[in-house]
Please model this.
Amino acid sequence: AQSVTQLGSHVSVSEGALVLLRCNYSSSVPPYLFWYVQYPNQGLQLLLKYTTGATLVKGINGFEAEFKKSETSFHLTKPSAHMSDAAEYFCAVSAITQGGSEKLVFGKGTKLTVNP
Amino acid sequence: DGGITQSPKYLFRKEGQNVTLSCEQNLNHDAMYWYRQDPGQGLRLIYYSQIVNDFQKGDIAEGYSVSREKKESFPLTVTSAQKNPTAFYLCASSTEYSNQPQHFGDGTRLSIL
Model:
């Protein structure tokens, strides 16, 4: 069964520092992978996705992620953190239900704090 | 603008009461989903529907019910059988293609009076 592990439920960085949020997945088939961001009391917004092709994926707000099959990882990075990046981030992998339908399996989330 | 509308934003339930959360989308998506979010738990799938008049249980369906009478609408009822309903509920929709992302509403926060 597909699953997602996000290492670190809380990450704190200084403004201007590198942001690195870790995601490892397990999947028996080539995965489709997604990163979402959630601001307080709001829904999830798509940051980026990997389906096929180029393994380095660029998303919105300066974020990018690299799909590494050998490491089963899809870590999210941003070179320079901004105060507005403070939010919770979710990694997700596409999975097949028992009924044969598609669904997303989410990690438990990483809350990012950006210090001035 | 196309999107997903959830209402109400805040909802309070009395003991023994059923409450219904609304979810409407105008994205012309076939698939719709309901998730429950608790702090530190991520998102857990309650029910999903791939087509009108058909829906399937997700990972935590007990104490919940849904209907899908129209493509645009996928209401969730939290029944009195759900003993711990306090949570943030998110509705999402997507096309039928698994490489496409799900689009989310802004959620409904349900609390017990």
